[in-house]
């Protein structure tokens, strides 16, 4: 049977019509999906701004289902899970992104960084460390190193913290000299507790070479020299401290008085303490003077209360030296003053407000360095 060319006149229009119809259907579907996905996304964003986190998560999940290839929606959802403390779900979201073969290198590094943050938030520090180390050579390496620095501080891995801080400085992120000096002091304390005194002194020397005005290194070296019987050398360290970091000298005032007494330099020490007290009155300085001249401690405490009438700790100490009170009243009065003075003798972190009866160079609450003023609460 011969083919009739006239059939082409019928087939070609039909094929064209079917192609046009298919393209219109695809176009409508393409227009509808992006329109629905942003609508769900903006709905989730609005709920998030209104602190409705549970509903925002549902909206973001809906947006991801409508457009599973949208990377930013996955990151938004994972971040929201992490903020809510649902770290397992955040990990699954970011691991799903990492398993995608079509993800560009920058987005892959971003997903790796988000995954490391998930592990850190969950307290899985070993996995967080591995995830951050995997970011070497990527655009997120500086952020990863900063996070690793915090991680090493938390785990008291001072050697690695030192190396990481050096890398950050070399990259021009900022100066970490003070923190590195603290790391060396921590290593010195570890060496000293292990009986390696010479090594401990070497760490302190490195700290002072790195930060010559570092009060902690000067204080530790003075205390250790005094403990080892070298009062003259200890006195020199404490006098450097009062010159270079006068505010921190209060922490060493009692040790300074003992060193001066042992070195036969009591008069010189009293003069230094008087000069420092005239600049910034503090009970620690008065107590140091009383160690050298205990016979005048009542007069000095009374004078301190005249200058600092709000010093409950000073009043408590003066009351302990007074014997004229009736026996029926003295114990109750002393107990009341002890209770009232105790919270005012604590140290408070200037960064987060954490309070402690013990002075810390690094706040146990927020991990900030040098955030504790060297004065108790009542003297601030």
Automatic annotation (TrEMBL):
Fe cation binds at residues 349, 352, 363, 366. InterPro entries: LapB, Rubredoxin_2, TPR-like_helical_dom_sf, TPR_rpt. It is a single-pass membrane protein. It is found in: Cell inner membrane. One of its GO terms (molecular function) is iron ion binding. SMART domains: TPR (SM00028). Pfam families: TPR_8, Zn_ribbon_LapB. Transmembrane segments: none annotated. TPR repeats lie at residues 37-70, 215-248. Its main location: membrane. GO terms for cellular component: cytoplasmic side of plasma membrane. It comes from the Bacteria. The keyword Cell inner membrane applies. Residues 24-380 are cytoplasmic. Keywords: Cell inner membrane, Cell membrane, Iron, Membrane, Metal-binding, Repeat, TPR repeat, Transmembrane, Transmembrane helix. The keyword Membrane applies. PROSITE patterns: TPR. SUPFAM superfamilies: TPR-like (SSF48452). Belongs to the LapB family. Modulates cellular lipopolysaccharide (LPS) levels by regulating LpxC, which is involved in lipid A biosynthesis. May act by modulating the proteolytic activity of FtsH towards LpxC. May also coordinate assembly of proteins involved in LPS synthesis at the plasma membrane. This is Lipopolysaccharide assembly protein B. It comes from Inhella proteolytica. The gene is lapB.
């Amino acid at each position: 049977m011969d083919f009739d060319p006239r059939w082409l006149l019928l087939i070609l229009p039909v094929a064209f019509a079917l192609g046009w119809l298919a393209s219109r259907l695809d176009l409508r579907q393409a227009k509808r999906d992006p329109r629905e996905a942003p609508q769900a996304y903006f709905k989730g964003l609005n709920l998030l701004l209104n602190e409705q986190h549970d509903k925002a998560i549902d909206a973001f999940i809906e947006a991801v289902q409508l457009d599973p290839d949208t990377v930013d929606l996955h990151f938004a959802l994972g971040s929201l899970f992490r903020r809510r403390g649902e770290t397992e779900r955040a990990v699954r979201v970011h691991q799903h992104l990492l398993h995608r073969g079509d993800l560009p290198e920058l987005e892959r590094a971003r997903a790796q960084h988000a995954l490391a943050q998930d592990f850190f938030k969950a307290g899985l520090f070993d996995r967080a460390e591995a995830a951050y180390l995997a970011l070497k050579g990527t655009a997120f390496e500086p952020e990863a190193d900063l996070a690793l620095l915090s991680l090493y501080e938390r785990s008291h891995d001072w050697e690695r913290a030192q190396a990481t801080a050096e890398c950050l400085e070399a990259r021009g992120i900022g100066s970490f000299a003070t923190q590195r000096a603290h790391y060396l002091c921590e290593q010195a304390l570890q060496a000293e507790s292990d009986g390696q005194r010479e090594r401990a002194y070497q760490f302190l020397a490195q700290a002072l070479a790195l930060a010559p005005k570092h009060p902690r290194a000067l204080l530790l070296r003075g205390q250790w020299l005094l403990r080892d019987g070298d009062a003259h050398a200890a006195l020199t360290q404490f006098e450097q401290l009062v010159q270079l970091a006068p505010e921190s000298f209060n922490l060493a005032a009692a040790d300074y008085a003992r060193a001066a007494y042992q070195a036969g330099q009591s008069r010189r020490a009293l003069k230094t303490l008087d000069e420092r007290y005239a600049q910034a009155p503090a009970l620690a300085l008065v107590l140091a003077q009383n160690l050298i001249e205990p016979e005048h401690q009542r007069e000095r405490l009374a004078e301190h209360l005249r200058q600092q009438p709000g010093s409950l700790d000073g009043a408590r100490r003066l009351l302990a030296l007074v014997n004229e009170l009736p026996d029926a009243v003295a114990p109750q009065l002393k107990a009341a003053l002890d209770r009232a003075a105790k919270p005012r003798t604590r140290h408070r972190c200037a960064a987060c407000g954490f309070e402690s009866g013990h002075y810390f160079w690094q706040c146990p609450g927020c991990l900030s360095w040098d955030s504790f003023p060297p004065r108790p609460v009542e003297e601030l």
